[in-house]
Amino acid sequence: MNHLFPFTEITGQEHAKKALLCALVCDDIRSILILGNPGTAKSALVRSVETLTDRKKVITIPQNVTYDRLLGTIDLEKVITSGNMHVHPGILQEGNNQILYADDINLMDEGVIQSILSTSETGQYLLEREGLSRMISTRFTFLASMDPAEGELSSGQMDRFDLCIRTDQITETGMRAEIIRKALSFEHSPDAFVLGCEKETDDLKKNIQAAKERFLYVSIPDGHADLISSLCIELAVQGYRGDIAVARTAKALAALDRRDEVIFDDIKLAALFALEHRRGDRQDRPPHPPHSEKEERPEQDSDKNRSEKQNQPDTRSDDQIGEQDKKNQEKNQIPTPPPDRYFDIGSPFEVIRYLDENTWQVTQKQKSGRRSRVISSDSSGHYRSFRYPGRCRNDIAVDATIRAAAPYQRIRNRNGLAISVKKTDIREKVREKKIAHTILFLVDASGSMGVQKRMVAVKGAILSLLNDAYQKRDRVGLMIFRGDSADLLLPPTRSPELAAKLLKAIPTGGKTPLLKGLTEGYLLLTRGKYAAPGENKSIVLLTDGRGNMPLTNKAPGEELALIARKITGTGVRFVVVDTESGFPRLDRARILARDLNGSYFRLEDLSIHGLAGCVNELMYSER
Amino acid sequence: MKDEIIVFPFSAIVGQQDMKDALLANIIYPSIGGVLIRGEKGTAKSTTVRAAADLLPEREVMKGCIFRCEIRDPRNLCETCREKIAQGENPVSEYTRMRVVELPLCATEDRVAGTLDIEHAITKGIKKFEPGVLAMANGNILYVDEVNLLDDHIVDLLLDAAAMGVNFVEREGISYSHPARFLLVGTMNPEEGDLRPQLLDRFGLVVDVEGEKDNRERSEIVKRRLNFERDPVVFCTSFQAEQQAIRDHIIRAKQIIAELRPDDLLINTAVKISLSLGVDGHRSDITLVKTALAFAALDGRKVVNCNDVIKAAGLSLPHRMRRRPFEESSMDFAAVRGIIESCYESS
Fold this sequence. Notes:
The structure holds 2 protein chains of 2 kinds.
Chain A: H1 14-25, E1 31-35, H2 42-48, E2 58-60, H3 67-71, E3 72-74, H4 76-82, E4 87-89, H5 91-94, E5 99-102, H6 110-122, E6 124-129, E7 132-137, E8 141-146, H7 155-160, E9 163-166, H8 173-188, H9 190-196, H10 198-215, H11 222-234, H12 241-256, H13 264-275, H14 290-296, H15 302-311, H16 313-333, E10 341-342, E11 373-375, E12 382-387, H17 398-405, E13 428-434, E14 437-444, H18 454-472, E15 475-482, E16 485-493, H19 496-504, E17 507-508, H20 514-526, E18 536-543, H21 556-566, E19 572-578, H22 588-595, E20 599-602, H23 611-622
Parallel strand pairs in A: 1-8, 1-9, 2-5, 5-8, 14-15, 14-18, 18-19, 19-20
Antiparallel strand pairs in A: 3-4, 6-7, 10-17, 11-13, 12-13, 15-16
Helix pairs in contact in A: 1-12, 8-9, 10-12, 11-12, 11-13, 12-13, 18-19, 20-21
Chain B: H1 17-28, E1 35-39, H2 45-52, E2 58-62, H3 79-86, E3 93-97, E4 100-102, H4 109-113, E5 115-116, H5 118-124, E6 129-130, H6 133-137, E7 141-145, H7 152-164, E8 166-171, E9 174-179, E10 183-188, H8 197-202, E11 205-209, H9 215-230, H10 232-238, H11 240-259, H12 264-277, H13 283-298, H14 306-316, H15 333-346
Helix pairs in contact in B: 1-2, 1-13, 9-10, 11-13, 12-13, 12-15, 13-14, 14-15
């Protein structure tokens, strides 16, 4: 009895379905990423794949999976009873010849993502953990889904996915009605529902089987093979994974269509599946922020729009650049006449400890590197090593305990037990939790920052702060506000190098939407990916505090104070760097820092060599 | 599930000459100090390194030694081998293939450094050291994919061992040390975050790879990959002759390099370059000289020429230039090239 919603009955999402079928036909299409807003049938689609195969199961990888569970660990029972090392298989091994599924992959631990993806690619992994050393072969199809609004994967991780498809919001009323009808009728009597589409499912199964056999004989005509390469070159696809994935997919599509030769349409569709997420021609643009993307995308008819673009992949980039230009022009011309200025980056300096590490609950002295790696006190985090136990012995490191007990087994009286463990053998797990530290640099790039080339010094300061973040391996993001918008130039990433590159191109000019910048920055860090509890979040705001774009009809200062007080104490730390120069000083940034309950520095204070910096540091260490 | 994974043959990899040369140079002359392959995602970085395993030459080692101590390297023997020799035993040798030992990102400390042999302890009740990845790596290639994502505490272990050539284990009541001289090969995609400077400096050479921009070459890559997937055995057989040719080539180059000594011209050139660039230390000079020698040997020559030095300079110098994290590489390669050319012309 099959109580899964059948694949054939899923309404719409034709692209997603096609891509999944390709993976069933071609074993070398090993990973598919499904992007889509919540409620666009992502996981329903994935689970329904099981209805198309008799032998494969869809195994879900839990969000907070540990390395033990994922890769395998010591099988204690067997070790103790037999005295030989045995591996208790992990999910990756259990998934051999099956389908593995990870929902919300963008929220998973980076190391875990890395392990799954490279295993799916190479069909094997090396287990070097806790006394075990094994090369484990496992071939599975990896399906992952995510809502890009919750945060993105790095481009390297994206590239590892053979195919990437988007599920669409269905806006057509007839289709929506059909979805409701089907869902209710399935709920009402699943058996009858499944029975009702049995023939369709069987036909599709047969087609997949036939396509699988045919796949081996499908050929790509030479001209078409060249087309794939030139397409990849044109779209600035890095590496060859894209080329190869297009070729495989095109062959699978041809096989599904009962053809022995790849035709142009196969390549077109395959390119959409395999190249969209690998396009390099969009990299000069800042990676699109999750929230503004929604604004850019036309609400209605996105399906049609996409297929149109897909028909002429080479013209799309031009279109987009055009749009972007237009947008920029609007931004620049409407609010203020003076043109944007581009300032150089001032000389970098060594930064003081402006993020006052003492308050970050770091329980371990750091030798170097990451400021936010914490030995966790509960049983969360990765098992890193072991120690003699403290008062409570809940989190016992069994392997280490056995190792400690092992040498004495001969001399101990085991009383019929396989192994005798004494109190003194017990070791406790030391778990390490990586607390990501996310710093959003929120930079005032309005016209007033151009006064006396202030922006040169500001850019120098940002570069220095980035350098500091680089050494501590924080995650940094860069958002600027000017004119009438706040733009996320770089969503929080571990590659501050990118941020440094973008820094050069920050234009200066226009009004100061300080409020908008503050709220947008705050929202970014408090929702989706970056909102995870236990993460350290800071906003480093570089401004002279002269906001002049009110959101309501209150007085600007009053409004700012109100918002500022609202967003304090909610887990985001604020550091205000006052960029005000000249005379008389208005000290607006200082007031803002007070309202935000944050730390306050003047630009000059940040340098470790500045006199003010030394004084400040003294004050910090005394506290 | 014992099905061997068949590796894509080295000789079937299209293009990426620098990457291949750097690997081969290290294989024939391991003291160059390893190579870091940096570059765009999906440009056959790992594929090439894994493929190199099939080409590795044989080494003459102490028979039965778990660390595969090199018989001709009496200064770097493990305790057991040293004792044997001290007791007047005549060392018996055997031949073993140099191999690629992989260090996975998920590795735990005990598996990297080695730990107590739990099986032995339970069954025999005797403490015994169970070698880890660093022991396996002795005399071999230690390969770390995505080396920039390696956990800090593992990097520390790696650096300690690499610096000393010895792995010290002090835990679980075990105090042990063994030789750990290995060729460090790393791959990384710089977009995923940078490498700590200390680790970067451990690599003798750095190669930056890019995807092929030529249409025909790219199609060829795809074609070969698909053929390989379709039937790996047949595909590998069709490259057997090429593979053997490279193996022979390596053996020949190893013979040449054993006799090759740097001439004054090469040494003076290296010194001139370092002085003009203001590089600290001598590691870069030495690496430059060694790499130039290796390139000459790979080309079957006993004399180093200008091109060898230029190529060696491009791989051994840029990552050693002092630079702040966000500065573009400050090396003026045209100037370096000029120095080399003028040295070799005036000779």
